[in-house]
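Box S1 | Example of a co-folding query
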Amino acid sequence: MRARITGTGSYAPAKVLANADLEKMVATSDEWITERTGIRERRIAGAGEACSDLALKAAQRALEAANIGAADLDMILLATCTGDYPLPATACLIQHRLGATRAAACDLSAACCGFVYALSVADAYVRTGMRHVLVIGSEVMSAITDWTDRNTCVLFGDGAGAAVVSAVEGARGILSTHLRSDGALWELIAVPGGGSRTPLSEKVLAEKLNCLKMKGNETFKVAVRTLEEIARETLAANSLRVEDLDLYVPHQANVRILKAVADRLGLPLEKVMLNLDRYGNTSAASIPIALDEAVRQGRIKDGSIVMLGAFGAGLTWASALIRW
Ligand code: UT7
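Box S1 (continued) | Returned holo structure for oxa(dethia)-CoA
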C-alpha cells in the first residue's frame, strides 16, 4: 500500500500588495526587492480573514479534485505558524467547518517545512492503515510581520494549499520523505515574544517581539547548503539521478536561493517550479500552493517524478520524492 496525493487545492486572499506599495511604507524599492528576492507582489489576508478561512477554501478545492467528501477523511493535519488562536489547534476549526465528522485533527509546527513534515506524517499513517489524510499548509504571515522592518516585511505573504493523501495500490505515490533539524540555529528565524519564555506584555508589543525576526543573509547560506544536501540524499535513497526529475517544487523564499540550488545540482531552471514573484514567501503554504499550480498548469502529469524541498525556522529542512 502506498500513499498518493489524489487531489490538490490552493487559495490566496484577493488583496495584492505590490512592491510599489511597500515603497510607500519602508525605505525600499521595487528594484531592490525584485533583484534580491524575485518577489514582485504578495497577497494579504483581508480584515477578519484568518488562517482557517484560507485553509478551508484550499481544503475544499483539494477534496473536490480528489473526488472524496469531507466525511471520508481520517485525519486533518494543518501545518502553520499563524493559527487562528494559540489554543485550540486550528485544524479542529477546519475539521468542524468542513464537516469531517470522522477525522482526527491537529496542527504541526515546523515553519516553512511544515507541509513536507506533515506530508511525511500522512504518508506514515496511510501506509499503516488510514485511508484518507488531508494535509494543509496555511499562513497569515501578515499577522506576525513588523511592517516597519524592511528586512522582513518585503518577503512574506498569505495563502493556503492542501493535498489529499490516500491509500492506493501500485507504483505511484510518495516514494520517500526526509526530515532534518538543527535547533542550534533557532535564532536565525524566530518570533521571540508571546510564548512561555517571554509571555505577551506591553514591552513585547512595544518592541514588536511578537513579530518575525530573521537573519536573512546567514539563513540564505544555510538554505542553499541544506537544500542541495537533502536533494542529493533523496535522489540517492531512490537510486535516481538529477536527470530523472521531472519537476522540483521547492519552498518559495528567494529566487536566488533556488537558482543557486538548481545550479549546484545541475538541474535546469525549467524544471524548477517558481511562483514566488506573485506570492512571496508564504511559509508552510508555499509548497502546496506551488504544487497545486503545477498540477493545474499540466506541469505535473501521471507518472511524473516530483521532488519537494523545504527549509525554514527551527532550523528545519525536508524533502519528499513522489511518483505522481
Ligand atoms: O522561509 C524562511 C527562510 N528565509 C529565507 O530563505 C530568507 C533567506 N534570505 C534572503 O532571502 C536574503 O538574505 C534577503 C532577501 C533577506 C536579504 O538579501 P541579501 O542579499 O542577503 O541582503 P543583506 O541582508 O546582505 O542586505 C544587503 C543590504 C543591507 O544594506 P547595507 O548594510 O549593505 O547598507 C540591507 O540593509 O540591503 C539592505 N536591505 C534593503 N534595502 C532595500 C535589506 N532589506 C532591504 C529592503 N530594501 N527591503
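The pocket of oxa(dethia)-CoA is lined by residues 28, 32-33, 36-37, 112, 150-151, 154, 189, 216-217, 219-220, 223, 253-254, 257, 281, 312 (CB under 6 Å). The CA atoms of residues 228 and 264 lie 7 Å apart.
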